[in-house]
Specification:
The protein is about 50% helix and about 20% strand. By secondary structure, it is of the alpha+beta class. A three-stranded mixed β-sheet has the order 2-1-3. Helix 2 (about 20-40) crosses helix 3.
Length: about 90
């Protein structure tokens, strides 16, 4: 299964709290947290991240029997939980 998560600085840090260098660290930390959480649920997933203003787009491509829309809903829930915990902030 391939998962693409799209986000950008305005979706991660809308108030522009961090400098560009700090934001890069925050983004990498968030992506690591997302990856760890998703792999716990879907250990065979291939996860990639894209910088995009189309942040409402979560793309799941599944070659198995699972319903991709259910997987997308679950991935969205996982990502929201990770973001809300805030463990990735500097």
């Amino acid at each position: 299964m391939k998962i693409t998560i799209r986000h950008d600085q305005s979706s991660i840090d809308p108030s522009a709290t961090y400098s560009e260098e700090q934001f890069t660290e925050v983004k990498e930390s968030l992506e690591n947290e997302y990856t760890n959480a998703i792999l716990t649920e879907y250990p065979d997933a291939e996860i990639q991240f894209e910088d995009s203003t189309d942040t409402n787009c979560l793309v799941v491509k599944d070659t198995g029997l699972d319903d991709p829309s259910k997987i997308e809903d679950n991935i969205q829930r996982i990502c929201e939980t990770v973001f809300e915990t805030g463990l990735f902030w500097l």
